[in-house]
Design a protein that fits this description.
About 35% of the residues lie in helices and about 15% in strands. β6, α8 and β7 form a beta-alpha-beta unit. The strands form 2 sheets. Strands 1, 2, 3, 6 and 7 form a 5-stranded parallel sheet that branches. α7 crosses α8.
Length: about 220
Amino acid sequence: MACLEPAASFGLCTPCREELPRNRWYCRHCALPLAFPGQDMACGECLKSPPPFIRVIAPLHYRFPVDRMIRRYKDSGQRAFAKPLLHELAHHLTETLDRHPDWRPDLLVPAPMHPTRRRSRGFNQASDIAEHLGRKLALPWSSNLAARQRSARSQRGLDRNARITNLTGIFRIVDQPPARVAIIDDVVTTGATARLLAQALKNAGAREVQVWALARTPG
């Protein structure tokens, strides 16, 4: 799928782009993919425990080939694999904000990475994505508003409750956030990171928090 042909537009030829797994039917709050279409649908988890963020915008499913492309981007620093995904997200957000101009945030805040992990990886992919979206959408972004106070063990393989426990108290907001903030990340999995960071931003004074990501896992 990820042909990355030099002559292709934004790294993918038209057939490959058309075969990307789109997140067409999803929970109105957390963007969890749903099995059937419906207006204003919410998943069971969001009905039971409403999140502190107002919405998640994630246009792709985190499955082949998107999962492989993101892993090669994050783990191997191969930014060429992020290029078509960044294009898809920016294009989707442009159309979304044209339809809903009141959803336009005052600031983009990338999900922070602990300095030790950032040195190991060499970059924070959330900051990369925020910078790209800031340029494309003419929005300010800041990688200094939120910080990780401590490192945490890997979130892979943990369910939502375990992820929340693993991350509790991990975020610190170092300055007054504006009223409307969009958290930027690569993938929303269980939503645990987004919930805790959104709550920290709201506790610090943000009135409305949403989440923008490249992809959403199926559950």
